[in-house]
Write a structure and sequence with these properties.
Elements lengths: L12 H36 L12 H22 L3 H23 L3 H22 L4 H6 L1 H20 L2
Helix pairs in contact: 1-2, 1-3, 3-4, 4-6
């Protein structure tokens, strides 16, 4: 796929900084909203579920997301500041919305089945985001690869929990 030329329009520094802050707040806002429903559901509901033996310990999830959300914010901001693809930014926002819905389905409603449908759509949305980011800014696309890998793993875990807890 041919790389689109870099925009020669210089983004004013103030707008650039505000855009960066907006992407960071947006990504971490999704995290905070998900945390509001996740925390209270961990005990006793999540702890009581049957889980596959390859389930990571609970303490792993927080640090992983602490790394992934900044990568997501930087990737989204990097593509936004190019100003060449509204579609790329909209796809990014769609995947972020799907990301935000998952904890409410899984932990809030305690519906691993519905959560799996959401996370499967999220995997597709992240892959599409990477595909539309690539021609705009390759580095931004690559920043989302660890996120995709983690969500694929999380989807497998979600499916296993759903199957083990009919």
């Amino acid at each position: 796929m041919a790389r689109l030329p870099i925009s020669k329009v210089k983004v004013p520094a103030g707008r650039d900084l505000m855009g960066f802050v907006a992407f960071v707040l947006l990504c971490f806002g999704v995290s905070v909203l998900g945390g509001r429903v996740t925390g209270p559901a961990l005990r006793p509901w999540y702890e009581s579920l049957a889980k596959p033996p390859w389930t990571p310990p609970g303490w792993v999830f927080g640090p992983v997301w602490v790394v992934l959300y900044p990568l997501m914010a930087i990737a989204g901001w990097t593509v936004w500041r190019e100003g060449r693809s509204r579609v790329a930014v909209l796809v990014f926002l769609l995947q972020l919305a799907l990301n935000g819905v998952w904890p409410w389905l899984f932990f809030g409603l305690r519906r691993p089945d519905w959560a799996f449908v959401d996370i499967a759509a999220l995997v597709v949305a992240i892959a599409v985001t990477i595909a539309v980011f690539y021609p705009v800014r390759r580095r931004a696309a690559f920043l989302l690869v660890p996120y995709l890998a983690w969500v694929v793993f999380a989807a497998a875990l979600n499916l296993a929990i759903w199957r083990l807890n009919p």
